[in-house]
Amino acid sequence: MNEASHLTKRQEIALAIASGAVVANAYYIHPIIGEVADHFGVSHARIGLVPALNQIALALGIFLLLPLGDRLSNRRLATICVTGQTLSMVAMTLAQDFALFVAGSTLLGFFTITPYLLPAYASKRVAPERLGHVTALIASGAVLGILLARVGAGVLAEHFGWHTVYWIATGLMVAVTLMLPRIMEAREAGAVAHGSYPALLKSVFPIVRTHTEVLLSGAIQSLNFGQFVAMWLGLSLYLTSPEMGYGTDTVGYLAGIAAVSVFSTPRLGRWADRVGPRKARSMFALLQLCGICLLWPLGGSIITLLLPLFVTNLVGPGIDVTSRMTFLSLQPEVRTRLTTAYVVLMFSGAGLASFAGTATYDRFGWTGTCLLLVGMSLLLSALASYARRLGR
């Protein structure tokens, strides 16, 4: 890789912004889901099809489309996918019936692979010693996109109606669709896989068998992302229960604590560049375990809850970044397919944890949720320690 092919700092920031804008599309619905249900005259149970099918389609899109990043130009694939998202957003905004809105949201999820394609692309165009920093920067863009989507959608819908949210989101996607071809090279550094599309999909499995550590990293991130989802679902039910008596707006304000990771994750990534991803990940996991263990003893007050939430939001994205670093330094021609396996594992964990988190709270309350989270965090820490020993 020659020096001229390296990303500039402006391009790195632009990729982070694009990642944030694309990721945000799946989260606009969260604060306005009640208004959307009322608009289409459907029950709260039925409106749940919107985020559910979006996530299922996302997992399918990752498996079917993301491996193409090792065969096609990443610029071409990213442009196709963000264009598909833009058209899906238009369909959702203009939908006159619920079925079309659900279809648009489902297609939106299917084309949401760009945030997972961009780190693999960037890894081919940065110096090895800056891999952690740039990976963390793109991850921070995604976190900021989620944060702004949750806060911004609620405020805009309150004053201007929920359709305004999607019109603005569509405008952002048009801007991203125009921007990406300008900042991404048509042919990035590294070899490109050849062969038929079915053969490319099948090739994911032998590649993963050859690089088994991606399964370990994927399992770690599956637990990491899964406990994040289970924690916030349980916390939402707990805070709005008669026991605590808070409104849903309080849960939304607490979600704003995720802003800490926007500033901390790039620094954690740079530190991981110095000490190594496996050592950094094991230390992040232990710190996260400490935060998880504080949820129950400090759960009686919303003020004291800020401490464990701060700790978990501080290091959680760092575990994701360091897990990606373990395989994004491998051969360029297999990185996207390794990312496919990693992300599919991650969303599988989140799906299982979503069910486990709500079911545990329903049966055992906040205490049961805290015990579930401690168990998941202990397993995560054990796997991170095992991976560190393997990497020596």
TrEMBL record:
The keyword Transcription does not apply. Residues 11-392 form the Major facilitator superfamily (MFS) profile domain. Signal peptide: none annotated. This is MFS transporter. SUPFAM superfamilies: MFS general substrate transporter. It comes from Qipengyuania soli. InterPro entries: MFS, MFS_dom, MFS_trans_sf. The chain crosses the membrane at residues 12-33, 45-65, 101-122, 134-153, 159-180, 251-268, 280-299, 339-358, 364-387. One of its GO terms (molecular function) is transmembrane transporter activity. CDD domains: MFS_NepI_like (cd17324). Gene3D superfamilies: MFS general substrate transporter like domains (1.20.1250.20).
